[in-house]
Amino acid sequence: MIKLSFEKANEVKNIFECESKVKGHLKDLLDGKIDMTGWVKHPINYDKEEVGRIKEVAEEIKSNAEVLVSIGIGGSYLGAKAAIDYLSGYHGMKRKGVEVIFAGNGLSEKYLKETLDYVENKNFYINVISKSGGTLEPAVAFDKFKALCEKKYGKDEAQKRIIATTDKSKGILKEEADREGYRTFVVPDDIGGRYSVLSAVGLLPIAAAGFDIDKLMLGAKNSYDAYTNVDLDANDAMKYAVVRNLYYNNGKDIEVFSTLSPNMQYFAEWLKQLFGESECKGHKGIFPASLNMTADLHSMGQLMQDGKRNMFETFIMIEDDFDSERVRYSDKLFVDDLNDIALRATEKAHNDGGVPVIEIKVEKQNEETLGELFYFFMMSCGLSALILGVNPFNQPGVEEYKKNIKELLK
Ligand code: PA5
Predict the structure, then answer these.
(1) Whether residue 152 lies in the annotated active site
(2) Does the C-beta of 237 come closer than 6 Å to ligand 1?
(3) What is the pLDDT at residue 285?
(4) DSSP-assigned letter for residue 65
(5) Are 57 and 183 within 8 A, CB to CB?
(6) Could you say which DSSP state residue 297 is in?
(7) Confidence at residue 170, expressed as pLDDT on a 0 to 100 scale
(8) Is any ligand 1 atom within 6 A of the Cβ of residue 192?
């Protein structure tokens, strides 16, 4: 299970002062008193029949293709990208399924063209993912990949190779999927984009890459059991939410998520969306940033040590990550021991320099711990935003930008 620790600095001495407030927020989440909180009980009441179908389709993709093109943006891609990077080992060496390529997550013409060229001579399937069904970036990419798929395989075969993940009944993508006869998976009504990684949005690409989605859901269920406990002393997701707010109230309005494994950079990107879109509203909120250690010590270390004292740092760590032969640095030390020493040195330097440090640790880098981490952070993010007094489950700022783009396109 996840281990949380933090320095008992002055700012966080009074963690139990807001116990009744945070308990109330957790009860509201559990009682479904707030809109868009389907993710809270999702690990225990997700649609098992749909997950069965996801596994079947993933097996079909693995048998018939080398590449899955996953088209989506924001919450419709970051969770799957974070998961596949976290689980694939380096250079994809632990991936047991197809290569998953992400498209529709921006408007770079060059990226789109070169990605189309990259898959053109490969055997591919497409999973187009959009909850609303009308977001510009994935719509543009889907149009091009659909055309390539139909040209390469013909309309009938393309119909089998295109799978849409979208709303169960409405939206342009749902209409198109029904018209064209594509298979569809559902983004549940009461789960917003950045809370959707454990639905079909994340599960199909993760399963197609060859990972065990049952274990992922088991990890999420472990976290559900642990972090729905209303006793603050026993609930680390609640404690983390409270500690972040205590730092914020003391002028620390930037949280730096530091990871030690290069393949966790996209996990940090997922965190940035989760916290940024959930919490930063009404001119309030903690700006989420990220660093990857030790590389970024050599670019951002100066700022962390000696820049403006308005940050706290959350290290996300894997304790024991070796299932293969170790690489020695010396008779006594492995290379990861150096990573650990660098971490201790950095934490001490940052703490001493006025940047409080929080540690969040899991034992291994696998599907189960990933499910635990996803749920832990969704729960702490929801609680943290509620403590701050904002609605964690809407995104008026994103809608505003989408509206402006539509206006300009006219
Ligand atoms: O979290 C969110 O709601 C957003 O980031 C969305 O995931 C993102 O804008 C993509 O939206 P959609 O899935 O509707 O295309």
Answers:
(1) no
(2) no
(3) 97
(4) -
(5) yes
(6) G
(7) 94
(8) yes
Walk along the chain (410 residues) in steps of 10 and give the mean pLDDT of each run. Answer: 82 82 96 96 97 98 98 98 96 95 98 98 98 94 98 98 97 97 97 97 98 98 97 95 94 96 96 97 96 92 91 92 84 91 90 92 96 98 97 86 80
Distance CA 82, CA 266 (A): 5
* Index of the ligand 1 atom closest to the CA of residue 129: 13
Question: Look-up: residue for tokens 């990861």?
Answer: 336
The predicted model scores a pTM of: 0.96
Check 298, 308, 332, 410 and give the catalytic one: 298
Is 42 designated active site? no
Output the six-digit token pair for 334: 């492995």
Pairing of strands 357-362, 124-130: unpaired
The DSSP 8-state label assigned to residue 131 in this structure reads: S
215 catalytic per annotation? no
Distance of CA 293 to CAs 88, 89, 256, 305, 338, Å? 19, 17, 12, 14, 12
Best substitution site from 76, 170, 190, 402 to test ligand 1's pocket, by max atoms within 8 Å of Cβ? 76
What's residue 172's pLDDT?
95
φ, ψ dihedrals at 149, nearest 5°: -65, -45
